[in-house]
Amino acid sequence: MSSQNEYSFFQSVEKSFDKAAKFTKWDSGILEQIKACNGILRLRYPVKRDDGSIEVIEAYRVQHSQHKTPCKGGIRFSEEVNQDEVMALAALMTYKCAIVNVPFGGGKGGIKINPKEYSVYELEKITRRYTSELVKKNFIGPGIDVPAPDYGTGEREMAWIVDTYASLKPGEIDATGCVTGKPVSQGGVRGRKEATGLGVFFGIREVCNMPEVMSDLGLTTGLADKTVVIQGLGNVGYHCAKFFSEIGGSKIIALAEYEGAITNPNGLDVDAVVAHRKKTGSILNFPGATNLAKNTDALELQCDILIPAALENVINGENAPRVQAKIVGEAANGPCTPEADEIFLKKGILCVPDMYLNAGGVTVSYFEWLKNLSHVRYGRMEKRFTENLNMNILDQMENLTGKNVSDKARKVILHGPDEVDLVHSGLEETMITATREIMDIWKSNKEIPDMRTAAYVCAINKVGTSYAELGIFP
User: Fold this and answer.
1) What is the DSSP secondary structure assignment for residue 417, as one 8-state letter?
2) Nearest to 301 by CA among 324, 284, 270, 283
3) CB of 361 within 8 A of CB of 195?
4) Domain for residue 166, yes or no?
5) Does residue 2 contact residue 9 with C-beta atoms inside 8 Å?
């Protein structure tokens, strides 16, 4: 994918970086250090297939920045994986973590396979061998580099990684912190699965609650009744659709997947579409919806909010002029090219950048890592105490007023926070704070052209401060 473009994905990240760097105060040497990839591990290792044949697997792990440790970033299984892509994604992780105040450096990993072409047993062997290679090269560990799921991977693969790591590091008390996105039974955190989609929702909601921004776009404040198009119906796209429709009161008017796209101006029920896809193998021919000729046609529909939640470079110099959305929310990594940004600027389209908007996953991964290091579940210490305290306060209020609250209100007031409540609350605070920080930077300097550049300025300033305080080189 990225290799087909005029320049590489990593170069496009560097181009965006350079565009923002001139709005910062940092010395060129510090800027070069922030941009550079600190460590690139390129692996080749053999795996025996189920039919007895031997296949040599190509894999990568990149540690972009160690201004904070450990490094953090997902592992993707995809035939499109190459060194350039992994470097670009690792760099974006550095900037993403800085913007949302998660104290990690950026990392990323990838294995160049199509997971659909391998049995579960083969995938397990590939993942476990990859982990053992990372251990050998000191490229994994709770204080070194902490992977997570990404495109083509999930809880299952993370469970294999933590098991392999723990077996190679007997007695390491914090071994479960070597990877995040694990099943809850293996030290995972509740709320991780929906985290990226929920973070996108919180970020866009905060933008839509800013009267000045919405006035410039010719839109009313809030998400209620806004029309939304979502490209990609994987974990992130699905949860985006759910939160926008169920919490935001928005209307999902189109959904796109690799097999095609469907639209209904009256709104689509995402769960019904998913059920239809499970039954038929496709989102096409969903009752009440119209099929679009190509899946990319969905990107060009008239709507208030467009959410590309699939792979990179789907909106580029060729199709960006036909995008009719007022707001583009980048739920995927790098879905819009720098050429698309220039076109959006001319058309007055607000592009809310991936580098912070899809940081829900890494934010909740941070919460999971902290949970692993503290060895205690969130809410365990305070849930019952909070409920007892609330009960006493409520009893006193009812006694003093002589009135009783309704059963529904009583349930809400008495509820002590579970792990998932605290995770969602922490994520909401993170996304609101990050959105406001970026908007403040953008507002304070009229020469900053767009929100992406403002986000890069925010990231560069935070990473630059770390390097300056370390004396540039740790």
Assistant:
1) P
2) 324
3) yes
4) yes
5) yes
Q: Select which of 108, 125, 326, 383 is catalytic.
A: 108
- State the CB neighbour count (10 A cutoff) for residue 54: 8
How much is the pLDDT for 111?
Answer: 97
Burial of 469 (0-12, 13-18, 19+ CB in 10 A): exposed
The CATH number covering residue 44 comes to 3.40.50.10860
Q: CA 471 to CA 474: how far, in whole Å?
A: 7
Owner of token pair 């992406």: 452
- 351 and 217 assigned to the same domain: yes
Q: Token pair 């890069």 is at which residue? A: 456
Of the candidates 162, 160, 156, 192, which has an alpha carbon nearest to the alpha carbon of residue 179? 162
Inter-axis angle of helices 235-246 and 195-208, to 10 degrees? 40
The answer to whether 318 touches 296, Cβ cutoff 8 Å, is no
From the list 89, 35, 17, the residue with the least C-alpha distance to 313 is 89
Helices (H), 137-246: 155-168, 195-208, 211-217, 235-246
Residue 435 belongs to some domain of the structure? no
Taking residue 381's Cβ as centre, other Cβ atoms within 10 Å add up to 11
How far apart CA 152 and CA 93 sit, in angstroms, is 18
Rounded CA separation 418/411 (Å)? 14
Which residues of the chain fall below pLDDT 50?
1-5, 474
- Give the span between the Cα atoms of 203 and 158, in whole angstroms: 27
Q: What is the model's pLDDT at position 234?
A: 87
Write down the pTM of the prediction.
Answer: 0.89
Phi/psi of residue 103, nearest 5 degrees: -80, 60
What span, in angstroms and rounded, lies between the C-alpha atoms of 444 and 440? 6
Question: Is 347 known to be catalytic?
Answer: no
What is the Cα–Cα distance from 64 to 96, expressed in whole angstroms?
12
